[in-house]
């Protein structure tokens, strides 16, 4: 009899763990499904439009990297807002290997922002190629030049480790603090 009672108690505990579909759970589920169906509808309409009009600018606009990040951010904020947040901040040091003069490289062909800041200048120049200037903490302006596919725009906020563009073999990295050019090593000591 004791074994049978133990089994019944365990079964009763298992039944109690499952939450019934109460009003709050139903509302969350219902809201999620409505939002999900709206997103599916927008995606289907967009894909149909691109398929019917292959020369349209919609394809370029949707597949643009900045718009992709904005859309995925919106989806995670609105559709998945009911999920518990288990965000863990990870600090990673961005470092580059010195090649020669002001030329640097890293383990990939991506130019990553060394620190968080604001883009104060961007463009292309005959001598610098593609370039991005970021004003970071301690009023240090960091110039990344000879880069391809610049992925940030003027006045964008950038985070540490954000991809700014790409490079072929090496790129130029210059630091300026209060109007005076400083070396990469001096910059690292400032942190």
TrEMBL record:
It comes from the Bacteria. The chain crosses the membrane at residues 29-50. Keywords: Membrane, Transmembrane, Transmembrane helix. Residues 104-171 form the M23ase beta-sheet core domain. It holds the Pfam family Peptidase_M23. The keyword Membrane applies. This is Peptidase family M23.
């Amino acid at each position: 009899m004791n074994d049978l009672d133990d089994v019944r108690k365990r079964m009763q505990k298992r039944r109690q763990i499952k939450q019934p579909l109460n009003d709050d759970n139903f509302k969350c589920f219902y809201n999620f499904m409505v939002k999900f169906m709206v997103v599916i509808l927008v995606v289907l309409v967009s894909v149909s439009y691109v398929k019917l009009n292959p020369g349209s600018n919609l394809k370029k606009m949707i597949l643009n990297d900045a718009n992709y990040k904005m859309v995925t951010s919106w989806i995670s904020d609105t559709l998945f807002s009911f999920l518990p947040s288990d965000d863990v901040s990870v600090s990673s040091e961005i470092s580059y290997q010195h090649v020669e003069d002001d030329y640097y490289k890293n383990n990939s062909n991506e130019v990553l922002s060394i620190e968080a800041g604001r883009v104060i200048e961007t463009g292309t120049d005959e001598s610098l190629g593609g370039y991005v200037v970021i004003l970071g903490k301690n009023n240090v302006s960091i110039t990344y030049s000879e880069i391809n596919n610049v992925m940030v725009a003027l006045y964008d906020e950038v985070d540490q480790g954000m991809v700014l563009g790409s490079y072929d073999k090496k790129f130029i990295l210059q630091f300026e603090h209060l109007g005076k050019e400083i070396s990469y090593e001096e910059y690292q000591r400032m942190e």
